[in-house]
Amino acid sequence: MKIGYLGPSGSFTQMATQQLFPDDELLPHSTIPSCLKAVMNGEVDVSVVPIENTIEGTVNPTLDFMYHQFNGHIQGEAIMQISQQLMVHPDNAAGWRQVDRILSHPQALAQCQEFISDTFPDKLTEATFSTAYAAKYVKENRGQAIAAIAPKRAADEYGLTIVKENIQDISQNETRFWVASLAPFNAYTKNLTSQGKKVSIAVEMTRNVPGGLHKILSALSWRGLDLSKIESRPLKTRLGEYFFLIDIVNAQELALVQLAIEEITLLGGKVKLLGEYDVFPVSSV
Questions:
Q1: For the chain, which domains are there?
Q2: Were 17 and a residue from 28, 48, 97, 141 both cysteine, which residue would form a disulfide, CB within 3.0 to 4.6 Å?
Q3: What is the pTM of this model?
Q4: Which pLDDT does position 196 carry in this prediction?
């Protein structure tokens, strides 16, 4: 199979993707929307994209695209321990504290806010498409006083020098990745063991009436469905209109989930089933 991932080479997403699909062709994409569009256009069979981080929360471009545009489903989830490293071009290693800009993906910059504010209080941060893209940019622009925040693999990939290790704000820093495709498949490596099952749905109430969210949650609650996440996102129509992402964990009784969806629909809700899938731990090494 052809597997898309948020690249370039050396990204956390690539590391997760390699463990999920060790024998398949991996194709990097520069943005999350381009990863998911590649699935829709038939350019790849599957794409792997980040969805949530312990420190910074939901990766909004992933959630918004999955709800508004993607016509496939989540087929799996990978969870990885994340450690961020500060790296520079080897020529600038001795004077790394004099860098003018720190580059990385917005999520990574947010994960390292304390380190950045303490070490570089007057320096600029610059968002890039991915952590690996930031490392690649530093490699290709040796004459600039810049640093990247990225994984160790990116330093190896692009020949950079790590000057500060593990700079994330908390040690227990994890990221979830969604595996998305148009058709179901059963192609995960046998070396990975599922930690459980999950169902993700997105719900909007077609009429803005009092108690709308309560009705949604009641349909899930009285059936004993265990929620691990509920989050609102703007519908991008007008102020005050939202959809809700709901993650249901250990959803062994899928019939109960389907009945809850039917009840929510009868109550005036619009439900999109994002996916029923297994959760796999993967290594950051």
A1: 2-81+173-181 (3.40.190.10), 85-164 (3.40.190.10), 196-282 (3.30.70.260)
A2: 48
A3: 0.83
A4: 87
